[in-house]
């Protein structure tokens, strides 16, 4: 049997309290769900979410073709999103899977902390997870990162089960690792943290999971140039910015990571706690010096580990204060003073993160405001107008809200053609067209010499450009003779 070292005795849950501590897991789950639903329809869908919507709405043969060209690493998530993809309001339904996953992760974090260090640690850890701005950010996003975090919690729970009880429980652990990889290959950076805790006994379940992941890994390797070409080598500033990303600001980062450091020390005989909270981010940063793989959302699966450590840290501090106070005030006052410390930590975290939470729910808080783009186009479009997307991939995500995009004739491709029009072909297609809407990013050096833009600017003059986050909308009308 695999054996995990346990936390110091001061943090061990008493056997007679475990059965009565179900609120320590239910309350964080409810809090996470409520936080995820508040303001969920406020921000517009942005480009990544729009791609999720497009893929989830595709007929299965079309989705299969798409995954053969790009986004194979998100294929399982797109399949899971399909039941949510055809209802209104679109923001609520597309993001609902992430809200549910976040609630499940909060419950799992609380359950793990309760198992390792008692009900007080469980309630603190789960609540801290639910209150973190990064958690809310991805609870309100139609991408797979909240689901990846939930499966990371599940895999860690099953590792602990396997470690404590042995037997065939390795099969469940292997299945959870395979599921984690199918949802996001980079999340497998969690496994070194598991190895720190369980050592060589993880090799068998890892081998089974690896066999299940081979097809995805082979396809994803060929799509890397399309999928993550935009990643850059991170510097120390990017690594230092991760705590702020998690907690929404410097004050919250100091509180959460300070508590996590205390919790990692308090649970030093359970190395899984510190390894999960810190090791994957360090590994991602180091690997990225050779091959960029780091982005804060790609290592979000460590946030449950951070909350686990922070919750144990809060419970440990509360226990220390309660003991100190008991010497002077008697045992009867001990529990109340400890609970007051835990409550103070959570209230302080709420105060420090309130502003970031409000900012995340503003309508313009996402990188693209596709809802306003669609509304503006609908208000100004006229019969006979055309639309041109430069670069071509902007066709994939800007039309998620439909509207005028469903009726505008698209100049980017000739009818039935797989490749975009060339400059001369676009010039021929523009004959007799009075108005063209250009949907593009900022036209800098990268696109300034695009042959379609050169033709468009030769024949038409632009009106002032309107910006909707990183997406620009420009109306072109013919140059007068």
UniProtKB/TrEMBL annotation:
InterPro entries, per the entry:
LipidA_mod_glycosyltrf_83
Q: Which UniProt keywords apply?
A: Cell membrane, Glycosyltransferase, Membrane, Transferase, Transmembrane, Transmembrane helix
The keyword Transferase is assigned to this record? yes
Identify the stretch(es) annotated as Disordered: 1-20
Q: Name one GO biological process term.
A: response to iron(III) ion
Q: Where are the transmembrane segments?
A: 21-42, 92-111, 142-160, 172-191, 203-226, 246-266, 273-292, 298-319, 340-358
Q: What is its main location?
A: membrane
Bilayer topology annotation: Multi-pass membrane protein
Any one GO cellular component localisation term in the record: plasma membrane
For molecular function, the Gene Ontology terms on record are: pentosyltransferase activity
**Localization of this protein:** Cell membrane
Source species, domain of life: Bacteria
Under PANTHER family, the record lists:
MANNOSYLTRANSFERASE YKCB-RELATED, UNDECAPRENYL PHOSPHATE-ALPHA-4-AMINO-4-DEOXY-L-ARABINOSE ARABINOSYL TRANSFERASE
Record-given protein name:
Mannosyltransferase
List the taxonomic lineage: Bacteria, Bacillati, Actinomycetota, Actinomycetes, Streptosporangiales
């Amino acid at each position: 049997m695999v054996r995990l070292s346990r936390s110091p005795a001061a943090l061990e849950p008493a056997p007679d309290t475990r059965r009565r501590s179900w609120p320590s897991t239910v309350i964080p789950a409810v809090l996470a769900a409520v936080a995820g639903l508040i303001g969920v329809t406020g921000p517009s869908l942005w480009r990544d979410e729009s791609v999720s919507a497009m893929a989830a709405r595709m007929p299965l043969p079309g989705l299969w073709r798409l995954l053969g060209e790009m986004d194979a690493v998100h294929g399982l998530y797109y399949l899971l999103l399909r039941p949510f993809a055809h209802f209104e309001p679109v923001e609520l339904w597309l993001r609902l899977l992430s809200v549910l996953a976040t609630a499940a992760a909060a419950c799992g974090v609380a359950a793990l902390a309760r198992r390792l260090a008692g009900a007080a640690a469980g309630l603190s850890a789960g609540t801290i997870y639910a209150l973190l701005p990064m958690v809310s950010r991805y609870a309100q996003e139609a991408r797979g990162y909240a689901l990846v975090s939930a499966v990371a919690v599940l895999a860690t729970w099953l590792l602990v089960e396997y470690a404590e009880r042995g037997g065939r429980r390795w099969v469940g652990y292997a299945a959870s690792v395979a599921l984690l990889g199918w949802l996001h290959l980079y999340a497998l950076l969690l496994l070194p943290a598991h190895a720190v805790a369980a050592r060589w006994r993880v090799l068998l379940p890892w081998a089974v999971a690896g066999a299940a992941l081979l097809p995805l890994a082979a396809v994803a390797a060929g799509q890397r140039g399309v999928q993550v070409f935009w990643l850059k080598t991170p510097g120390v500033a990017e690594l230092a910015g991760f705590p702020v990303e998690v907690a929404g600001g410097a004050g919250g980062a100091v509180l959460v990571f300070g508590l996590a450091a205390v919790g990692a020390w308090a649970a030093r005989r359970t190395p899984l706690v510190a390894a999960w909270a810190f090791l994957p981010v360090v590994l991602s940063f180091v690997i990225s010096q050779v091959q960029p793989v780091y982005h804060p959302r790609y290592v979000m699966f460590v946030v449950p580990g951070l909350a686990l450590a922070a919750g144990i840290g809060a419970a440990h501090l509360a226990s220390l204060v309660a003991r100190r106070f008991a010497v002077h005030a008697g045992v009867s006052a001990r529990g109340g003073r400890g609970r007051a410390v835990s409550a103070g930590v959570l209230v302080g975290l709420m105060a420090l993160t309130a502003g970031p939470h409000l900012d995340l729910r503003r309508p313009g808080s996402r990188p693209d405001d596709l809802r306003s783009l669609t509304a503006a186009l609908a208000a100004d479009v006229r019969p006979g107008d055309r639309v041109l997307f430069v670069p071509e991939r902007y066709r994939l995500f800007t039309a998620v809200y439909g509207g005028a995009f469903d009726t505008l004739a698209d100049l980017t491709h000739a009818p039935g053609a797989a490749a975009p029009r060339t400059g001369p072909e676009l010039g021929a297609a523009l004959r007799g067209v009075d108005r063209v809407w250009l949907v593009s990013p900022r036209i800098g050096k990268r696109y300034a010499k695009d042959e379609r833009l050169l033709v468009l600017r030769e024949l038409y003059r632009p009106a002032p450009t309107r910006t909707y986050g990183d997406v620009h909308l420009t109306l072109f009308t013919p140059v007068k003779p």
